Amino acid sequence: ELENLSDAPFSGDEENGGSEERKTEINGNWIPVTSITEAKINAKAKRRLRKNSSRDSGRGDSVSENGETLKIGVVVPTSPKGKLLDRRSRSGKGRGLPKKGGAGGKGVWGTPGQVYDVEEVDIKDPNYDDDQENCIYETVVLPLDERAFEKTLTPIIQEYFEHGDTNEVSEMLKDLNLGEMKYSVPVLAVSLALEGKASHREMTSKLISDLCGTVVSKTDVEKSFDRLLKELPELVLDSPKAPQV
């Protein structure tokens, strides 16, 4: 690049004298040739830097002033944003450990393995009630309505026709809150037996006999057969021999 400056004004001073520094005139100012050379080198380096930057822009990379490639979206640690996201102690005294051993955040129950003692009742508490200590909590089973009754007891009776254990049926019925639907147990059993075999009708007679006095009363059995006689015209549609049976 020094050869390109050979045609500049006063370029022959070096040949004549040899000791003077070569200079050139730019905008009326005399500037040493070495300064121009350094400026051209810096300009060439910047052009190369811009060229590499535009070439890598499609790959999501950028070039810093020092020529180091940086990924877009990566926060430089020296930037103010990087300092805000830094979780280290700003005072420089912390060790980077979680506060309170990990039990100081919102919604945290405590450190792992921590066991809490039983909280004692404060008698002086304005919300304290003497009756709350004498409360007995029991599981309440709602009574079955007509639709839920048939849906629940039908599979129980059909399974009884398979195993023939009246005690199992009795235990299952005791766990249910039959309420006013107790008299419907013999009604449903007889209705299913009419559609089945002769052995099913015999098992139904035994079932009603064993349930009487434990699950249903004699009054419930009487009420159930009264209802069967009233519903006999409807039973004949499904079982024509229902009156004789």
TrEMBL record:
<dbReference type="InterPro" id="IPR003891">
    <property type="entry name" value="Initiation_fac_eIF4g_MI"/>
</dbReference>
<keyword id="KW-0677">Repeat</keyword>
<keyword id="KW-0963">Cytoplasm</keyword>
<feature type="domain" description="MI">
    <location>
        <begin position="148"/>
        <end position="245"/>
    </location>
</feature>
<feature type="region of interest" description="Disordered">
    <location>
        <begin position="1"/>
        <end position="111"/>
    </location>
</feature>
<feature type="compositionally biased region" description="Basic residues">
    <location>
        <begin position="43"/>
        <end position="52"/>
    </location>
</feature>
<dbReference type="GO" id="GO:0003723">
    <property type="term" value="F:RNA binding"/>
</dbReference>
<comment type="similarity">
    <text>Belongs to the PDCD4 family.</text>
</comment>
<dbReference type="Pfam" id="PF02847">
    <property type="entry name" value="MA3"/>
</dbReference>
<dbReference type="InterPro" id="IPR039778">
    <property type="entry name" value="PDCD4"/>
</dbReference>
<keyword id="KW-0694">RNA-binding</keyword>
<dbReference type="GO" id="GO:0005634">
    <property type="term" value="C:nucleus"/>
</dbReference>
<dbReference type="GO" id="GO:0005829">
    <property type="term" value="C:cytosol"/>
</dbReference>
<dbReference type="GO" id="GO:0045892">
    <property type="term" value="P:negative regulation of DNA-templated transcription"/>
</dbReference>
<keyword id="KW-0539">Nucleus</keyword>
<protein>
    <recommendedName>
        <fullName>Programmed cell death protein 4</fullName>
    </recommendedName>
</protein>
<feature type="compositionally biased region" description="Gly residues">
    <location>
        <begin position="99"/>
        <end position="110"/>
    </location>
</feature>
<dbReference type="InterPro" id="IPR016024">
    <property type="entry name" value="ARM-type_fold"/>
</dbReference>
